[in-house]
Every structure is written in C-alpha cells, then in structure tokens.
Amino acid sequence: MSQENSLEIKNLNIEYLTRSGTVHAVKDASFSVAKKETLGIVGESGCGKSTTGHAILKLLPSNARTKGEIVYKGRNVLTMPEKEVRHLRGKDISIVFQDPMTSLDPIMRVKDHFLELMRAHKPNVKEEEVIQTASEALEAAGVSKKRLDNYPFEFSGGMRQRVMIALGIALKPNVIVADEPTTSLDVVVQEQIMEVFRHLKKTKDMSIVLITHDLGIVAELADKVVVMYAGEVMEYADVYNLYKNPLHPYTQLLLKSVPNIKIDDMELHHIPGSLPDLKNLPQGCRFYDRCPFAKEKCKKEEPPIFKVDKREVRCWLYE
Amino acid sequence: MKRLGLLILSLILVISFGSKSFAMSKKDYIIAGTTDKITSLDPAKAYEYFSDNILQNIMGGLVKYIPGTTKIVPDMAKNWKISKDGTVYTFKIKKGLKFSNGDPIDAKVYAFSINRVIRLKQNPAFLLADVVKSAKALDKYTLQITLKYPYAPFISILAFTISYPVDPKVYPADKVYNGIPVASGPYMVKKLVRGQEIELVRNPNYYGKKAKTPIILIKIYREANNLYMALLSGEIDLAYRTLLPQQLKQVQKNKKFKTYTGDSPFIREIVFNVKAKPFGNAKLRRALSYAVNRKQISKEIFKGQVTPLYTLIPAGMWGHKNVMPHYHIKKAIKMLKSLGYSKSKPLSITLWYSPSHYGSTESDVALMIKNQLEKTGLVKCKVKYAEWATYVDYWTKGVMGMFLLGWYPDYFDPDDYMWPFLQTSASPGMGSFYSNKKIDKLLKKARTITSIKKRARLYYKVQKIMAKQAPYIPLFQGQQHVVAKPNIRGIIMDPVQIFRYYLLSK
Amino acid sequence: MLSEKIGKNIKQLVGDSSGIMFLVGLFLLIIFVIMAVFAPYLAPYSPIKPTGAPLLHPQASHLMGTDNLGYDVFSRVIFGSRMAFSIAAIATVVAAAIGIPTGLIVGYIGGKLDSVITMIMDSVYTFPGLILAIAIAAMLGQGLINISLSIAVVYIPTYYRVIRSQVVTIKSELYVEGARAIGAKSPTILSKYVLPNVLPSTIVVLSMNIADAIMTEAGLSFLGLGIAPPTPDWGYDLSKGQQFILQNDWWLVVFPGLAIILIVLGFSMFSEGLNEYLNPNIGEKR
Amino acid sequence: MRILLSIPMILIILTIVFFVLRVLPGNPVLAMLGPKAPPEIIHAMEHQMGLDKPIIVQYFIYLSHIAVGNFGTSSYTSLPVLQELLQKFPATFELTFYSMIIAVFIGIFLGSYAAYNFGKPMDIFARVYSIFVYSFPVFWFGIMLQLIFGVWLHWLPVSGRSAPFMIPNHIYTGVYTLDAILNGQWDVLTDAIKHLVLPSFTLGVVISSIFVRMVRSNVLLSLSSQYVTAARARGESEKKILFKHALKNSMPPILTIMGLQFALLLAGAILTETTFSWPGIGNYLITRISYRDFPAIQGAIVFFAFFVAVISILVDIVNAWIDPRIRY
C-alpha cells in the first residue's frame, strides 16, 4: 500500500480459551498503518476490533492464544520477550481505553500516573521533568496542569478521558491506539474528545489506530478503514472509496441502513439475522445469515480476501 | 526489602554482642517449677496449697513443725501456758523479732493479725473464728488467746498459715492486702509475676538460720506437660507439683534426675449423699464399697503413685486404722442381689466428678469406678461432671447422690479428718448429710481431751462405726513427689507436706 | 436433554481444579458418613469399654492402639464421627432455623426493627465466636444438645446476615415489585419469590458452617467444655491424648487429630468446589 | 463513625455475657469460700459483692462501673480485675501482634502471587495450602510443633513467655520484646523472641489460610480491572503492577475483612494460649471460668470486645490512609 508502515498486522489470529469452549475472536486479520496515518477499525461490538487493538500492545488476558504477526519496527510484537514489549508500551505505542471511569487507578493522583509512566521507561527521571512533560501533555489534551495533584474521582468522565489521552501522548509515541475512546461518554463530551483527536492529528507526528463504531468519526478522521465482522476483516480500503463505493454487502448495509452513520447495538439488530456464535462458527461465510446476496457457495465455503483495485474484500461476489 | 534485611542483620549483631542481663554463679540460685497458681499471699485469705506453701517459706508463726516430722515446737513463741479448762492460751514471744522491712514483731502484732483474720472473714477465717473468743496483748511480749470452748487441735491451727503475723503498718486492718508480702521467714518475695514466676531472696532480718541458697526462682507452668518439658530441657532444677503419673513413671527411669517420694496427708473418697435415693441404705453403700477396686485405680491410673486407703484418717497419722472392706466383687454381687437387684433390673446410679479441680486424671478415676461397679453386672452407672464452682453448689444443695471428692487437712490432727466428714453439723458441708448421734458424742469428747492415746481410742471407735455405715468410700491417699537434678540437696518429704525451699542447696 | 446437561456438568466438574476439589471433598464426606452410619459394624470393639491393656501401640488387634484406660482408639475414632456429625448438624440446623427466617422477615420488613436486630446480629458476628461459645457452654453444661446449642448461637448471625443482605437486594428487584403489584401477600412473596433465590448461597454457607462447627466443638472439648467421657469424641480424645504425648504415645493425638482435619477438609473442599460451581470464578475474566 | 458503632457492640456483648453467666448454676461465693464457710460469712460476702440484689439492679450497677473503667474485684484473687487484665493483656497483644504479622505476610505474598499466577502451580499450591491449613485445629497444630521443635529437636522452648530470670528488669509496656529493647537487655530480647516463635507461628499459620484466600480473590478482582491493563499499557512492570496497583487497591476490602477476622484471631489466641501456657487473657479467661470468677470473666470478655472494637477503628483509619475516596 503506502510507503513506510509504522505497524503491520499479518494474519493475526486470536482465540480465548474458556471453560465452555474456545472463542475464535479474530481470524486472519491483515492490515497496516502507515506513518502519520489514521486507521479506523469499525464493526459492531464483539466483532474483535478491541481484541485486535489490545493485541497490538500485547495486552490480551492470559487465556488468549495468538498466531500471526504484529510487526513494529521490523520485529514481531507477539513473539517479543515480555520485557521488551514493556518498553514499547506507553513509549512507542500507547492506548486510550473505552471506559475512562475505570482506566485510572483510583488511589493514585494524576501526577503519580505520569510518574509511573515515565519511571517505567526512564527509572531515574527527575520529578521536575515529569511535571514538565505531564503539563505539556495535559495542555495538549485540554486539561489544566493545576490538576496534577488531583485524584481520579475528582474528575468527570470526559476529563478523565483527556487525562488518559495525555498519558497516551506524553512520551510522543509512534502509534496511539484509541479503543472506542468516546463510547461511554455523553454526546457533548464525545464531541470534545474528538476535537482533541482532530487537534492531535494535525499537530503530532503519530499514527492513530481508531477503533470505533461511529462511522461519522471514521469518515472524518481516518485515512484508511478496516471493517470487521465476527472476527474477520471484511473490507479494507481507503476512506474515500469505502464510503463512496462500499464493496462488501456488510459495509453496504452498514452505510445504508444507518442513516446517521453510527453503528449502535440497538440499531444493528435491524439487519436481519444474528451474529454467529464465536465458539461454534459456521462452515461458510460468517455473514451468510444476514447477507442479502447470499448464495449456496457462501454457505459452504468461507471466502478468502479478494483484491479489487487497491482494496481488499472478503466476499465471493468479487471472485 | 533491603532495608528490612539490614535491620534484621543489625538486630542479630546487637543481640549476639549485647550485654548479659544477669551474672550469677550457678550456686546462687535454684529454679523450681510447678503447675500451681498463687491466689493470695495474705495469710488471711490464702487457702490453697501453693499460696500456703509460699507463705510457709516467707513467714513464720508462734509454733512450727520440725522438718520431716509431725512434731510441733515453739518458733516465735518462747513458751506457752494453757489454762486448766483448756480455753486460755498465754504465749511469751521472743524478743527482737523483726519483719523483713525492719518493723518489729511482738504480741500486739499477733493480736492485730488474729483479730484481722476474724474480721476479714475470708475463706479460711473460720479456722480461727469458730474457736477464738479473743486475742489480746497483755504486754509487749505476752499474747493471750481465749477460746470459746476447749479445743485440743488448737496448737496445730497455730502452726497453720492463717495464724502467721502480718505487719500492721503495711497490711490494712479491714482489707485483703495484695502487695508484695512483708516477710518474717527465711525468704522474702522479690518479684511476683502472676502466672509466670516468683522470685524469692533471703530475708536479711530473719531471726532463724538463714536460707541455704540466696535465690529461689519458682516458674509457673500451665499444665503438667509444660512442666515436664521444662524439666527435661534442663530449664528447671526441680519439679514439684504436679507431673502426671505416666510422666513420673517415665522420669523415674531417667538417670539424669532423682525422684523423691513421700506420703501426703491428702486423701480422696467417694461421698454418698445419704439423703438421696438410693444411697440412704447403708447396706447398699457397703455393697458398692466392695465393688471398688482401689488397687486397680492406684496401679493403672496413678502408676502406683497413690496408696489405697480404707479409712478417712491417712496412714502415718496417729489414729489411722484401715477399717473398710477391701475389694471383693463376689460379696458385692451377693449383697446387691439380696437387695433385689438383678441383671434385668440393675441398680441405676450416677457418679459425679469435677474435671479439672483434682487434675486431669479425674475423669479416668470416675470412668474406672464406673467400669468396676458395672462389672458386678447389677449396676448401671452413669458418669456426669460439673465444673468446680457448680460442683460445690451441687453438693451443698444435695443435688449429687454419689460423687468424688478430696480432702487436704487444714491442721494436722485426726479431728480434721473425722469431724468435717461425720459430725452432724459439719457433714452437709461435705455433701454427705450424714448424722449419727453416737459419732457426734465421740468426736466432741475427742476434741476436749489432750491425751493422744485416749483420743486415738475414741477415733478407732468412730472409724469402726463408719466402716459399717459407709457414708464414704475412701479411695486412696496421695503421695508427694519431687523430681530434681541429682545435685540438688536438702529435699525433705514432709508428712505435713510443707516443702521447704530454704533447706535446698546445690 | 437433562442427561446431556448432567453429562456436561460432570465433565465440567472433572475438568478443572475446583471440580477435583469438590469431588475429593465429597469422597471424604462419604467415607465419614459411612463411618458414622455403620459404626457398630465397622468398629471392632465397643468404644466405651476397656478392650485391652492400657496404652497398647497400634497393632493388628488394635489398629490405632489403646488409650490409658484400654479403650480401643480405632473404635473411638469411628464412633467419634457420629458425635461430630450430630453436633455439627444440630448446631447448623438450629442456627439456620433461627437465622434464615429472622433474616427473611427482618430484611423484608426493614425499618427500625431491621436496624436494631442487624446491630445485635453484627455485634455477635464481630465478636470471637469461640469465646461466646465458651461462655454459653459453661452455662449449659455437658451433653450433646447443650454443646450444639452453644455453637448454634454463634452461627445464627452468619445466616441472618447472608439472608438479610440478599433479601434486601431481591426485594427491590422487578419481579418482587411485580408480585406485590398483582397483590401477592407478604408470606407468599417471601416463600415463593424471595426464598428460592436466597437458598443456593445458603447451601454453601451451611456446608462451610458445618466445618466450622466441628472445629468449634473440638476447641470446646479441648478446653474441657465439651462432651463428657466416655462418649467417644475426637476433641476430648485429643485433649486427653495430649497428656501422653511426651511419653511418645503419639497415636492418641495423631488419629483423632487426623479425623478432625479430614472431616473439616472434606466439608471445606466440598463447599469451596460447590461455591465455585455456583458462582463461577471471577478469574476467568482476566 | 466506627467508634459510635463500637459502643453498642461492646454493650450488647456485655449484656449477653452478663445474663448468660448469671444463669449458670452454682454460687460463686460458695466456690470461693468453700463448703466449710458458715452461712453468715457467705451472706456477708454475697452482700459485699452485691449478689443479693435483683439481677437487673446488679446489671445496671455493673454497667455504671464499667463506664468509669471499674471492672470490679476478682473473687478468686481479690485483685482489681482491670489490674489483672492489664497485666495479662500485653502477653495477648504480643502474641496476636506477631501472629498477625506472620499471617499477613503469608497472606499477602502467597495470596497475591497465587492471584498473579492464576491457574498455575503456584495458585494451586496456595489454594491447597489455605484449605489444608484451615482444617488444622489450632491446638493440634500447636502440639505437633511443640513435639517436633521442642521435644524432639530441642530447638525452641515450648511454653511460657520467658526462661527463668528472663523477665525484663523494668516493665514499661509489658510487651517483652519491646521492654527488652528499651532496657537494652539483649539476652532477654532473644529469649522473648525464642518463646514467641512457636505460638505466634502456630496462630499465624492457621489464620493465614483465610488471608491467603481473601488476598487471592481480591487481587484477582483488581487484576482484572481496567486500570491494571492501563498501567500495563504504560509499560509498568508486572511486579509493580501487582504490588502498586492490584494489591494496594485490594487493601481496603482486605483490611476490612482482616479486621473482621481479627475475632477469629482472638478465638485462636485462646486456644494457642492454653496450648503454650501463654500467660495472656485467654488463659486467664479459661482459668477463671472454672472458678466462676464473674468479675474476671466479664472483664475479660468486655476487654476482648473492646480490643475488637479498637481494631475495627484502626482498620478504618488505615483504609482512609490508603484510599483517598474515603479520606475526602
């Protein structure tokens, strides 16, 4: 695709082992993020987009099993020793979580979070330096530096998310993963947080992996888009073409059936059929049940990725 | 973590190079161990073996026993006179006697002390209160005690701790004194940590022969096991009261220790409440007494460390005569049958005991007697227990028909083994409620005369009647045991069971 | 359908550590139950009569030796299980019979009564149970029933608290509101809607309590406040055996001690496994 | 707040015990004086002890006395009960304190490592440990340790607080390890520590089973929370995550439960004290029960209740110190 990639995901497979069976959360996902580029990952909840985002920092729970590669600076994060991955986290790649209410340690001041972040990568760092860096980052995220000594419970949800973003950008990482950063916030605050991201995209030299189900945000911010369904990448394209001419029936349905171009769980049920059981997957295409163009082959065989122009799509229609 | 390690290290260093707390020659002290506990060291309140025994080592009285005998000789008294009717005792007290704090001991002090005991009304007060009419100092060195009635064993009571003088300047006249005792004996208490240890040091003002060893430390252990472990580990020089029978038996084989054994005036018996059914029947009581095998109890539970007893007056005391029938199960069966009991219609009774007051062997004793009685095949015996306080309440209220009891004398005289058990007004206190006019008469007479020979004859008569009536089944007489390292000298097994720490040396 | 479900459950049980725990616990309990039920057939001798020389070492005729009165230790250990079960059962049943209804009713009614009773229950709950049991046992005196009662008193608050807190939550839930709306009477609501929802957790508490009760009984017996001899009782035998431990008569202490440990182990493994089965582990979410 | 809640707790326990003891059969005066005492002396003593008044009057008299710190006079030794309790209390405190340290140490390390290694051998070990140790009767475990380390190996003393002559010269606090340091008597300190090892280890290990379990489940809960993942995403090391985030956040619930378990510790202390001849309040209580020494028994129980209350207040204070949400 484009010139230089900060991050390349190749054939990523993720499974969860649970007492009641194996959950196939992500299957054969491949995509890449170029430098300074913003990649949007969209899909409804449970489609594996957050799992993929967490996998980038190797933050999956202990019952997760991964296969494939996540290449950062020429090395596979998934097989890197824990110690080295640790040095990537927060410094090279950082993440902003969905729920700001629980992402900050309730018994640590904001300052302590920054201290921890910087000490983890530079054990002997001076406190003045931390305060300096933290103030800048907070400023960039729209939080007054006066609040460094406050505890998380003294902040509103939106402010906490700003703090999380500040933590994410403090060490000027190459990649920041934003895992549904606005989902749990109310509409006004969502807009404020998006404003922060817009600002970041303009001012900072980093790649953003934006995981969301808000197609509007993706349209506005992303350069490229990955559409996921039931653990698989259904379509991978640049944002302009995707919106102009969606190839995959799922993408089409998404864009058509949701007038305000937001995928909310409630509205998604309007698409007939239901998500396949990830513990017990069908033989053929995972979208078969709900696909208006489904044919016999779709039921029997799982479609591979087909390249159409510079785009990728997983559908027999493009055989 | 690192800091903690450093702290521990420095602590270890300090400990290993630190100063020693005490530097004494090993000859200067003897460490004794016991499981007994102190209640009070005020003579007016002390009324159990250990407190009394400590008082016997730190205080003295008008008279005392010669060690190893039952003979009473003057101590602080120079001499005394008894009026013809036997009610007025006049004592001449030695001059220059002093308490450990330097205060003088004279007739006034004695009069104060005796009157104080009577006024305080503590546990043992009745010993004096029941007989003494008045005590007064005629002059500085003359004490006159007037009795309510002639009472032969009175001199024995004067040898008991209740009659020891206390310092009027220290001991309040109307309250029990709880501080460190003011001594008048060979030792004085230096340190008293209740439940842990008592340190005795020589009393510099003692008028008699000074104690052989400067310091005696008595360590107090909760139970026999702890005492025994301390003995084996060498922590203590001697163990006195009370190792378990099996431990004594084992330690007797141990060459590292020497065991001393002597008779104790302590006796055990089964009490029948003659007012309770079916124990009002003398024949039934006698039948049961045939079924009790004292030798088995002595041998199997106490490893031979008690002596079977067939009367209430212990062996070694004048007046003692084994009068009760020995074990004879066939006779027991015959008598029970003649009373109408059979295998299908057995005699159903309950035997009571108190689980901790007489040591941990007590439940075994009760169970063994149960088994012995049931061996007749005509008795169904239940065993029940009650804690001591409840037990005392039960027997004084007559709740229990048949129960185990023990007796340790207050004064060393047969009267103390007969009167409380058999005299009509005293027997309810023993839970027996036994009454016999003839016995009452004999006991009263024995109190008023002084001739031992004549008194002994009266007690023989009483014991004979008792053997027929069997209101009690005497079981055994205790022994006293001391286990000590071989280098400890001066251990005397006293018939009155006064353990004299001041004679010990090494 | 049902058999399939049971099959799946068994597979799950054996599948992981809590399942194994549950099964081992169950196994231990079954052994003790058999011991208690068939004691007269299993025990070689009467437990309350001398059957040999005193203090025999474990040997063919006396598998666990004899005590100082010649009683057979093996027979006493077997019969002792009856005592353990009876006391534990009576104590927990009495505690549950008082604690559960009180918790149900008081929790349902709420208000001042609730706060007063809860305060009393909490006080008893916070206070060291054994100490309270000691005081009550000393009052009631010897005997199976008395000891059971003094232990029961200690555990009433446990049931009360569990039940009350659940009732308070369930009370506000929709279906109870609904039942009230359609005019169901309070007793009906309690027995039909509230009780069935509260019971599962009670079973776990019950099973854990039995283990606790056995321990408390052993403690009381050890302190000399338990069962009067010669009734076979592990706690009493243990305290008695302690007097002989320095003579190396180890069997007097080891066997009754093991019996207590194993039965308590049985109950706690059983309840732990059950608990994890009923409330699946939080760890999985990690 | 807790202080206000503690007063009714002490009061309720006191009331229960007061009436429970009064129902006991037997007359304490008789037990004290013995059966030989004449009735008039018994009556005098009953009057002196207030036992001739109606029970409810006795109750209120007792309450008013307790309120001003008057625990009455022991009928067994004639000493003021409070004085006796204060003399015994340091022993109980010392034992429970060191046991608590051992239990907390085992609980925190084993519990949090188990949680951290969820499902791995370490975790299984911790679970087996806690369930096994929980089944140990305290006294049985104590006897076994006495047998092994005292009788067979002769490494450690098996009973009491001190060897002969090894009581600190000057008693400042009654806590021997502390007094020995204050006195500079290092041999006394070593001796006190030696005597503490077996009893505090016995009690500590038995109590630790519950702590291990509790710490494990609470740390598991914290470890599954978002802020732990967030900390990991900042590059924090696993060790620091475990101790700084997971453990520290689990502390308030752990401490609260530990505070509740303190009752269990005290119950265990009674059995430990009797097993090891430890001259503390538990030992005192058991001895005095058989003498029906009412003032002493009540005093000891009120003291225990008081102790429990103080601990729960302390737990609150520590929790506030850890958790800013409580503090503000």
What does this entry look like structurally?
The complex is a heterotetramer of chains A (319), B (506), C (286) and D (328). By secondary structure, chain A is of the alpha/beta class. Helix content of chain A is 34%, strand content 24%. Chain A has a domain at 5-92 and 173-245: 3-Layer(aba) Sandwich (Rossmann fold), CATH 3.40.50.300. In chain A, a hairpin with a 2-residue loop joins strand 4 (64-72) and strand 5. The two termini of chain A are 21 Å apart. Chain B has 506 residues and is of the alpha+beta class. In chain B, strands 1, 8, 9, 10, 11, 12, 13, 16 and 17 form a 9-stranded mixed beta sheet that branches. In chain B, strands 4-5-7-6 form a 4-stranded antiparallel beta sheet, covered by helices on one side. In chain B, helix 8 (282-291) packs antiparallel against helix 10, helix 13 packs antiparallel against helix 14 and helix 14 runs antiparallel to helix 15. Chain C has 286 residues and is an all-alpha fold. Chain C has one domain (2-283): Orthogonal Bundle (MetI-like fold). Chain C is built from 11 helices and no strands. Chain C has helices at 2-15, 17-37, 39-42, 73-109, 111-126, 129-140, 144-171, 174-181, 186-222, 234-242, 251-278. The radius of gyration of chain C is 22 Å and the shape is elongated. The model of chain C is unreliable at 281-286 (pLDDT under 50). Chain D is mostly helical. Chain D has 2 domains: 2-67, no CATH class; 81-322, MetI-like fold (Orthogonal Bundle). Chain D has 14 helices and no strands.
Helix-strand category of chain C: mainly alpha
- CATH topology of the largest domain in chain D, anyone? MetI-like fold
Considering the protein shown, what is the CATH homologous superfamily of chain C?
Answer: MetI-like
Helical fraction of chain D: over 70%
Helix/strand layout:
The complex is a heterotetramer of chains A (319), B (506), C (286) and D (328).
Chain A: E1 5-18, E2 21-34, E3 38-42, H1 49-56, E4 64-72, E5 75-76, H2 82-88, E6 93-96, H3 100-103, H4 110-121, H5 127-141, H6 157-169, E7 175-179, H7 187-203, E8 207-212, H8 215-221, E9 224-229, E10 232-238, H9 239-244, H10 249-257, H11 265-268, H12 296-300, E11 306-308, E12 311-313
Parallel strand pairs in A: 3-8, 3-9, 6-7, 7-8
Antiparallel strand pairs in A: 1-2, 1-4, 4-5, 9-10, 10-12, 11-12
Helix pairs in contact in A: 4-5, 5-6
Chain B: H1 2-17, E1 29-34, H2 49-58, E2 63-65, E3 72-74, E4 77-82, E5 88-93, H3 107-120, H4 126-129, E6 132-139, E7 142-147, H5 154-158, E8 187-193, E9 197-202, E10 215-220, H6 224-233, E11 238-240, H7 245-252, E12 258-272, H8 282-291, H9 294-301, E13 307-308, H10 329-338, E14 347-353, H11 362-374, E15 379-385, H12 388-397, E16 402-407, H13 415-422, H14 437-448, H15 452-469, E17 472-484
Parallel strand pairs in B: 1-10, 1-11, 14-15
Antiparallel strand pairs in B: 2-3, 4-5, 5-7, 6-7, 8-9, 9-10, 11-17, 12-16, 12-17, 13-17
Helix pairs in contact in B: 8-10, 13-14, 14-15
Chain D: H1 2-23, H2 28-33, H3 39-48, H4 55-67, H5 81-116, H6 121-134, H7 138-152, H8 176-183, H9 186-223, H10 226-233, H11 238-275, H12 281-290, H13 294-322, H14 324-327
Helix pairs in contact in D: 1-13, 5-6, 5-9, 5-11, 6-9, 7-9, 7-11, 8-9, 9-11, 10-11, 11-12, 11-13, 12-13
